[in-house]
Amino acid sequence: MDGISAHCPARLASAAPLSPASLRARQAAGRSRIRLPALALLGLLCAACATPPRAPARPEAPSLAAHWRNAPPDRDADAPVAAWWAGFGDPGLGHMVNLALRDSPDMAMAVARLRQAEAQARQAHAGLFPSLDARVDAAQARSALTEGGTETYTSRSLGLQTQYELDLWRRLSSLSEAAAATAKASAFDRDAVALSLSAATATAWLDTSVLQARAVLADESLERARRILRLVTARRDAGAASPLDVARQQTLTSAQERLAAELRQRTEETRTRLAVLTGRTPGELDLTLPDPAGLMPPAIHQGLPAGLLTRRPDIARAEAQLAAANANVAAARAAMLPRVSLSASLTSTFAPVSAPLYSLAGGLLAPIFDAGRLEARREETMAVREALLASYRSTILNAVGEVERSMATLAGIEAQHTAQTRELEAAQLSMRLAEARYRAGAENLQALLDAQRSTFTALDIRLQLHQARLQGSVDLYKALGGGWQATSP
Fold this sequence. Notes:
Belongs to the outer membrane factor (OMF) (TC 1.B.17) family. With about 500 residues, the chain is α+β, with helices and mostly antiparallel strands.
């Protein structure tokens, strides 16, 4: 390097000046040499642009029935909306769901994954365009002169360089399409997380409300059992009842105490679950629970089975993942074909001689032997696509099954509620008559014990059926997509 740096200035200084005719001939020859690679570059660019973009085909969905099997009459029902929880008529429920959607760590993770996928999509799309870099060099060299001695000088240069790969076989375009489809899948995944989170929060809220009401009912039944225990004890002291009667009533009273403690424990567990869903500790969550008897689930319009394809974010996510897999297969196929890359640079040297230099180069890279790596990559992407296609169909079938199960559950609960209403009325009448007859001495304790158990069981089952009805409505809202649409932003 030092020798070359030493002789280049001397040669430039000793070269004879060119005549104007020679200078024009040399410039014309340079232009002809530039024109040929430029024409070749233009032809390659036209060939790359001539390949039309592929329109992604919608995957084939499994055949769906024309109507729901367990669809109830929905003449007065409304289609699910985005804020479907408002249909229950409790502002506290809406407040809890909004807290969960805002502060839940699961929601924050889904949003972060979406930002990551969008950034990766932008990176893949940037590969379709040339890259441009600036370069600044500085060097100090020492060379020996022909007359003797040495000469030291500093060379500085400023340049630009660019690189570009021609997308002849749509490898880069396919990779960009795959990244864009993956970003869409992440957006749909965020929406699916939001739907699941809102449904889980609503479930925890309703469970806490009903369990608290059941705990209050258990306390009331316990107080009634204690009152009757005092009555039986007084009758034993008066000789009108046996110690066995006292023991039986004491057993029932202790069972009520155990059940009341169990319901209070389960209420605290659901409160803790609700706090975690909203991104808080149990001590930070302030709850004002409503009377569940005032919460009436709204009628829901279920639409048609085919509508689930555009109303479920998990189905849209599976479809976007399948589109990304198709694009990856195309990219893997294109990777087995030759690649054409172009590069250009422009450099200006400021010392010791100012002379702009340029270069234009093109390269062809064709795979010859890679031990089957590219072929294995293509087979891998095809296997991933087949798995995602099966997952897409499975997601649709599961969605249809969830809707059918939710509607069947609601229909069964309505039938149970009608029969249980008659059961409760009969149990309450039996309780009043048995207690009055026992006080009058016209009935034994066993009839009163049975009446107590039947009454409490009927009251508790009424609350459980109401909880199941509310939960069934939440499940149906979730199964129908919760008002989500594929065209949502």
